[in-house]
Amino acid sequence: MADAHKDYPAKGRVILHLDMNAFYCSVHEAEEPEKYKGKPTAVAGSVELRKGIIVTCSYAARGKGIKTGMTVRQAMRICPDLIIIQPDFDLYRKFSRGFMSIARQFTPLVEPISIDECYMDITGSKIFGSPLEIAKTLQQRIAEEWMLPCSIGVAPNKLLAKMASDMKKPNGLTVLRLRDVQAVLWDKPCDVLHGIGKKTADKLERLRIRTIGQLAAADEELLIRQFGTYGSWMKSAAHGIDHSEVRADREQSKSIGHTTTLPYDVTVREDAHRILLNLADQTARRLRRQKLMASTVQITVRKPDMTTITRSSTLRVPTHSTDVVYHQACRLFDEHWPAGDPARLLGVTLQNLTAEEETAVQLDLFDYKEQPRKEALTKTMDVLRDKFGENAVLTAGMLGDDPSALIRNKKLRGTSLQKDEI
């Protein structure tokens, strides 16, 4: 692993992984330094003590023992002076667009991964200096223009660039070459390797493969028998090999999703359906606004203990209909979530997106006469919301039989997390 004062070899690809540090908290600190600079802060989906969950926290808070996933009550018990901030995703997207625009000034090959990170292929960017000079300039400009800290990994591929950026935070700058892999990574546990989760690591452990070095030396046929083609990928990754390209078109093909951390644990299936209707409504509306169609519907469900599942379904034909998205989301929820289990977070994500004008939509044989009327109604509702706000039109299904559901509905709409929109 190279020190920052050494340069990167000129041969081969040069990939940067740009990762913003404690992004949400850093954004609030940059926006209102007099309130938050240097103080222990945390962003929570709800500031209510019993139900609120810490989404992220500042490094000052981490130094006092605060961690993502804690309840607000737990965090306040550890750090009584912790400042809890409600999320502001319009603000986060503004800052995200800001640092991404700086990245694109060095190369057109920028692949956003989430609201706070991206890959950059700077192989052809020698006009701006050496790889380390480019990385240092990036850090400096983002700090000066947006007041945000970031860590950057420099490597010959995306896998090693991602792992390098994780090695030093905040404000880290790390080079990880192929020749460094054995010395730097091989003595580490398998789940340190990006792309290997705890369940896979546990399965590797049962095969007596405990370190990345042992994974690199493992029999490939054994890995393929146990894990399929993923086993072959793991062995290559353990050697630091990754041929995936930085895809500049990722922003156009990204998913669209909403998740919401609920102000109360939901155990009643009808309540969950009502929340899924809100989420389906918001995701489908964003889809229509961007003139896109989706072929896959995915749901996310999280328990109070932070256990999370995702389940998806591919549609017969692409859609941007709230009704279709909602019914698919409910079907997935009913099939995969045991009745009566509490849910702390719910989410709906639309994937495999295509442009409306490029998508052939097959009319339903039994419903084709109704479709123009439904499309006209949807357009009218969209126009009303554009003019009067999101709560201008609510369907009966969002309200249910309980009069207080309207109040809860507005709260849930207000806490929706819009992480996927950049």
UniProtKB/TrEMBL annotation:
Annotated residues that bind Mg(2+) are located at D19, D116
E.C. number(s) listed in UniProt: 2.7.7.7
Q: Which residues form the active site?
A: E117
Q: Name one Pfam family in it.
A: IMS
Subcellular location as annotated:
Cytoplasm
> Which reactions are catalysed by this chain?
DNA(n) + a 2'-deoxyribonucleoside 5'-triphosphate = DNA(n+1) + diphosphate
Any one GO MF term held by the record is: damaged DNA binding
Q: How is the cofactor bound?
A: Binds 2 magnesium ions per subunit.
CC terms in the record's Gene Ontology section? cytosol
Q: Where would I find the UmuC domain in this sequence?
A: 15-197
What are the GO BP annotations of this UniProt entry? Answer: DNA repair; DNA-templated DNA replication; error-prone translesion synthesis; SOS response
* EC top class, as a word: transferase
Q: Is Magnesium among the key words of this record?
A: yes
Positions of the record's site feature: Substrate discrimination: Y24
Keywords from UniProt, A to Z, are: Cytoplasm, DNA damage, DNA repair, DNA replication, DNA-binding, DNA-directed DNA polymerase, Magnesium, Metal-binding, Mutator protein, Nucleotidyltransferase, Transferase
Q: Which InterPro entries match?
A: DNA/RNA_pol_sf (IPR043502), DNA_pol_Y-fam_lit_finger_sf (IPR036775), DNA_pol_Y-fam_little_finger (IPR017961), DNA_polymerase-Y (IPR050116), DNApol_IV (IPR022880), Rev_trsase/Diguanyl_cyclase (IPR043128), UmuC (IPR001126)
What cofactor(s) does the depicted protein rely on?
Answer: Mg(2+)
Record note on quaternary structure: Monomer.
Role, per record: Poorly processive, error-prone DNA polymerase involved in untargeted mutagenesis. Copies undamaged DNA at stalled replication forks, which arise in vivo from mismatched or misaligned primer ends. These misaligned primers can be extended by PolIV. Exhibits no 3'-5' exonuclease (proofreading) activity. May be involved in translesional synthesis, in conjunction with the beta clamp from PolIII.
Q: Which family does it belong to?
A: Belongs to the DNA polymerase type-Y family.
Please report the name of this protein according to its UniProt entry. Answer: DNA polymerase IV
